[in-house]
Amino acid sequence: SREVRLKSRPSGMPTKSNFEVVEVDIPQPGDGEFLVKNEWMSVDPYMRGRMREGESYVPPFALGKVMDGGCVGRVVESHHPDFSEGDYVLGSAGWRDHWVSQGEGVRKIDVSKVPASSYLSVLGLTGMTAYVGLLKIGALKDGETVFVSAASGAVGSIVCQIAKIKGCRVIASSGSDEKIAWLKDKAGVDAAINYRNVDSISGALEELCPDGIDVYFDNVGGDHLEGAIDHMNDFGRIACCGMISGYNDEHPEPGPANLFKIIGKRLRMQGFIVRDHQDQEENFAREMSEWIQAGDIVWEETVTEGLENSPDAFISLFEGDKMGKALVTI
Ligand code: NDP
């Protein structure tokens, strides 16, 4: 059995040398416990924060210890009354081949109608982040104009499509022509910006949003946030989901130079963490399943094969050309 440990804390962009793949014994389940063989694991931008020392909203990874994160696996041995051999489960013991649990925080999942991996993407916390962030935090109203950054990513691609379902005009930003083509052809956005090819985000938005922006779903921060603030309509809402452009900075960049505009425009800017909104889970699961069945939501997964390649999959979140949700098959 193998596990991936944090070998050293990155300075700037993470590299493979920050990780170490180690052989360990397969853990043995005792009474009231079960053993899981992982099949899928998730790599997520928030894990970069956990590679730093010091508290963020989740505790940091410990040096020399196995990392963790969302995973889907199959129960291969059980001495627990509620979990049987063959059950598929969703847990948080990623970055390893096997794990033992007493069932706390572990959920059985039904893989008969949807692929197991979707519980780590569209039907999992990723999809729910899009749902809660756009509808509850962004308080989206039908027919508004929405701007979404990192729009071809796991969360962003779902945000774009929920906004289209709600009859909104959607402007998306992403980092390659291939991603822009996907956003227009598959996600159905109304206009898209390849931020690597424009002089400024604000200039591009001026052209594409003549009537302003009502909701900005921020995954990126930095110049995307500054550009959005320039073009927000009065009483607009900014749902602050992530600010990935700064995650590898050793020294945080100064904030948007135009922040004063939130006063005159009476903007509401609100950060949120998806785990605080579990009361939305039932609504989310029901609506998302309906949208998927109706063909209104499509999603992409970029799959990396092999636990040993999980560091590459993680690094690709910051510099790669992955589409949709980044996952690893184990
Ligand atoms: P993504 O699948 O969107 O992957 C990250 C993407 O961000 C990349 O594919 C890349 O796309 C883009 N990106 C990377 N670096 C930069 C940069 N410097 N400037 C602009 N774009 C960049 O990840 P997720 O969908 O999982 O997460 C999206 C955001 O949501 C993250 O900020 C994450 O931290 C946050 N998040 C927050 C949650 C919450 O509860 N608040 C829960 C889940 C995620 P491109 O090629 O377009 O640049």
From TrEMBL:
Recorded superkingdom: Bacteria
Residue ranges of the region described as Disordered: 1-16
Enzymatic class: oxidoreductase
Record keywords, A-Z: Oxidoreductase
This enzyme's EC code(s): 1.-.-.-
Annotated Enoyl reductase (ER) domain residues: 12-328
InterPro entries, sorted: ADH-like_C, ADH_N_2, ER, GroES-like_sf, MDR_fam, NAD(P)-bd_dom_sf
MF (Gene Ontology): oxidoreductase activity
Protein name: NADP-dependent oxidoreductase
